[in-house]
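Blinded run. Sample ID left blank on purpose so nobody reads anything into the name before looking at the predicted structure. Input follows.
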Amino acid sequence: MRSTFYEAVLPLVKDKAVLDVGSIGHSYSGRDEYKTWNFAVLAGQASRIKGFDVLAADVEQARRDGFDIDVGDAETYVAAEPYEVIFAGDLIEHLSNPGRFLACCRQNLVNRGHLILSTPNTYSFGKLVRVAMRRTNEPPVNPEHTFYFTPRTLEQLATRYGFRILAIKYCEFDYAGAHGGRLKRAQLRINTKLSSWMPEFSQTMIAVFEKI
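Blinded prediction complete.
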């Protein structure tokens, strides 16, 4: 059954010690313009939370506001202590070396700890329609993305770094009806409606892994 993003994620972090990777998102000052700020939402459910991000100036501003966020790179950051859950929202598709990122995640997790990854669904209804309309084999994505992932390729990569898959969840974003211009909002509403019947074509894929 398909759910919204936070309906899928929040039960997985409830009452857990959470390390949030890429906490700032696009920018700290503009964090509410794109979508609800993941770090703050997760903090409302976790027993404790720490984050890190490469955007040093934004991290400094967040720290002045009282948030426990460090400057760090997803491919090299090692926390002072391991965490029960690592959350990385829409991050892995931006990295130069996702294998190094997964190796760091394993180092930052307790035994049997969980890694939660979200990434855009390459084959959502919205993307497939735009591929057909534009007569291209290039799904529309953020130009900063370096990878496309499917459940099979993501599982294959993670198993090489000491994880086993627990679940793949498909979801729509909670803000889908209010994001972007008129055409974008219409596309998101249509995607939401269609994916309620076929969740595998939702906007976003969430993969849950366990450290082994």
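Unblinding after everyone has recorded impressions. The first helix runs from residue 5 to 13.
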